[in-house]
Known about the structure:
Enolase-like, domain 1, alpha/beta, 14 strands, three-stranded antiparallel beta sheet, 42% helix, TIM Barrel, eight-stranded mixed beta barrel
Amino acid sequence: MLNGLDIIEITGRIVRDSWGYPGVEAEVILENGAHGRAAVSMGNTGSAEEQVRLVNDRLSESILFEDASDQGRIDRMLSQAGDENWAEVDGNQGVLAISMAVARAAGAGLHLPLYRYLGGTSAPVMPVPMMSMISGGGGDKGLDFHEIMIVPQGANSYSEGLRMGVEIYQALKRLLSISGFSTSTGDGGGFEPDMKNSEEALHYLMDSFKLTGYKPGEDVLVAINADADRLYEKENGTYCFSKESRKGGISINRAQKDMLAYYLRLSDGFPICAVMNGLWKEDLEGRKEMMKLLEHRTLLVSNDFAAANATIIRLEQAGTVSGALEMVEKARKAGHKVIVASDVKDTEESFIADMAAAVGADYVKSGAPCRGECTAKYNELLRIEEFYRKHGQTAVHFA
């Protein structure tokens, strides 16, 4: 192979994610000496030992001595080899880890940073960060919604948007502490205050905007990740807000029409620019109705391209690097905004930062502007922006 891009060695190992759960790391070495590493969290499900065994045995054998620069062929071979093992191995973490490591190695072998290797030389557009501020919390505390995020639309650059997010995050922490709320963090680094409902949480966010000198609706917007599948109860066809019920002393179960009215009320009262997974994924009728009500002022985000105007891209869902790139292409063809996001359980792996820059994603979602697994992505985007700024090529999306 020209340039010595043949794969000559693959190693899988167990690493630890941000919560101490096991993850799978793959390392790929090419004939010319270039190498790439990538890690994927297992969370608290599946067997890391089995995934590593799969990486070191069947998956490695399937692509050994193949051309690392042919990502599509590599990913097809990995997926086929992985499919043969679904009965004994739960998940695709090993396949994804190798796919990412191969892309890194190929870029290194061609003396290109990963974002240039994946995206080519087209003029870059840096993504707007969607940063988690308030987490749903575990157990009985926190909110029923999975998380509430901020979107700094008034920034002139990615780095300025990130700085705004850090300032708001720290101001919110002070406000919560003064008010007697816990400032412990949950998945993605968002705070877990035990508030009575989402409206109260949103009011605290508005106060943190004002405290830092930013105007709600002009400088900063809000995004909600409802994770409605978790709230939905099939037996009675309603969404159970158990935490809000406990704090209010009355049972709060919202039917489809109540959920639509609730989102409409929140959008009227607060500068909400996006709602993720707002209704049960199988309620296509309700999702279409939600589009009619809110699409003119709000991004309605899904991962299945149905009844939405924005698509969230997660490598874990796509399964491979080429699979994620195909999802981005499909979203663009549908006229959707693209949000590249990390998974809830994560490692310090920064691959999605390079991917977001490479595909010109509208937004990047990687948790709060704190904790290493989150800031690893945000910091990598700072480096990418710095490179392009030096070459006079950088731009930034606006929400």
